[in-house]
Automatic annotation (TrEMBL):
The keyword Glycoprotein applies. It is found in: Cell membrane. It is a multi-pass membrane protein. Belongs to the amino acid-polyamine-organocation (APC) superfamily. Cationic amino acid transporter (CAT) (TC 2.A.3.3) family. It comes from Owenia fusiformis. This is Uncharacterized protein. One of its GO terms (biological process) is L-arginine import across plasma membrane.
Amino acid sequence: MSRFVGRLIRKKYIDLSTVSETKLARCLSTFDLTALGIGSTLGAGIYVVAGQVAKQSAGPSVVLAFFVAAVASVLAGLCYAEFGARVPKTGSAYVYSYVTVGELWAFIIGWNLILEYVIGTASVARAWSAYFDSIIDYKISTYLNSTVHMDVAWLSSYPDFFAFAITILLSIILAIGVKESSTFNNIFTGVNLLVVTYVVICGMFKADFHNWNIPKNEIPNGTDPKYPTGDGGFFPFGFSGMMSGAATCFYAFVGFDAIATTGEEVRNPQKAIPISIVISLLACFLAYFGVSAVLTLMVPYYILDPNAPLPEVFKRVGWGFAKYVVSVGAVCGLSTSLLGAMFPLPRVIYAMASDGLLFRFLARVNERFKTPLIATLISGLFAGTMAMLFDLKELVDMMSIGTLLAYTLVAICVLILRYEPPDPNQKFDDVTHEEDHNGVQNIVSDYGDEYVPAADPSCCSPLTKCFNPPEKAPTEQTAHLVKICVVVISLVAPSLSAVLIFAEHEVSSMTVWAIVLVTVFALILVFSLAIIVRQPQCKTKIPFKVPFLPFLPFISIFVNTYLMLKLSSQTWIRFAIWMVLGMLIYFCYGIWHSNIETERPPSKLRNGHFNQEDVDENTPGDAIVASQQSKDTERTSLIKN
């Protein structure tokens, strides 16, 4: 049992001296990454989601819904940025968690990232096909509905062969090479940004602030129950409606983490990844805020077209020619969004297969194109099939829950890693190496000359050690205390979110016990945060760190769990089925074929680590096996002689 648990929590160690080694081509600049982040994010949210949320959930407060979703994404983006600086390797949150919290959680995050990117690709391909179909007066859907109609509740009404073809074509483009794909993305992203700028500037000339505060008596009674008209004002559907809209708007910001999957294809990843994540998220928020503002200022929210709001809005104000400009931007925006959704998918699969957690043949890199060719084509085929068969709304909800869980776990990993003590076996950034005048490497502590050893813990009471620890640098004891507090936060934050969501819908019947629960949960969170704040942090020198730790990761955890609980129960059921399938793959294949399992003797594993006496601290992890085999060969030769 001890060895089995050790397998679940064993960690991947990365040596800084070998971190730049990769089979992939390093050809992307900071500009390329920023364009990839904007292109991945700025797509369906502008041309579809803004109108849907304004009409169905939030009204004019859609601008605040985008703000809440942007805050959640920025907080997650800062956590991704720190890990991108720490671990500039392909695999995004999967690699980050493998280094930090162990193999099982790494597989769970990687499996959820695959879900996010597959469904993201399928949903954008479906949206691209639907938008193109609307331009040609729905000739594609009319023909397919009449010839190959499917009458299945959980499938689309017709197989979308056009969406399938788009996905396969883009898979081929991605398989040819990263630089070629990046050039395609840069051009289309530039056109998309020009169209968004055109929409915002032109829309301001037709803005009417009365549309943000329409009295209830001026609103016609809605005849379609699917599209209620609300009560008017800036919050026609209340605060709860705005927050539900924020959960949907979160879909519009999904895609920036594509940047974090390019760690082995960037020229200077430790600086380029943090900078491009922050810039792309800021640019996307400004675009979403501007477009949603002019949409709801130009016409009343309840007459918006939920499927293609921008062309209809300009037509109503007498600018019908703008439809063609918007259509060009929509085609470019959805194309780059599709590329951004598909780009990281084969790279996450490649990273997991390289570590042995998925089937090994998926990690093969084509010698000519320097891309994971098999993983790219298989993932494109899978995503294309889902785009062809499944309904768009079902795909979007499934993607949101997997993404939010990945963001939550990344924030948890940041909290844990920042308070970890230096590991003598981990050669990745806990210590720095400097050479003296003779060229001899000296290991220099990150704590500098002012490092003070831990005081005698027997002189302090347990409560005093929690809030005023004698240690001046992280130790195993302080790290263990932080982990306990993080576990408490991870359990209490969703509980508090659930009570708050219940209170939103049942304000009149909110009883004393609900108020007591909110108070108790809030006090537990404050107490846990207070303990974490008092613990010493690791002073590792990296290009970027999350500011205001532990508060920003905590807010990210709370907001993400809150938005997850706003999703429907059907979404959670489908997510549970996906997770069961993933656990079957991991326990039947991954746990036994992991690189750590196959390349290092299991007898030396204790709680996921190697015995200190069995590992030369100057030996990289992959060289341990060769060293051990050499010793065994010498021992056998001596016995024979």
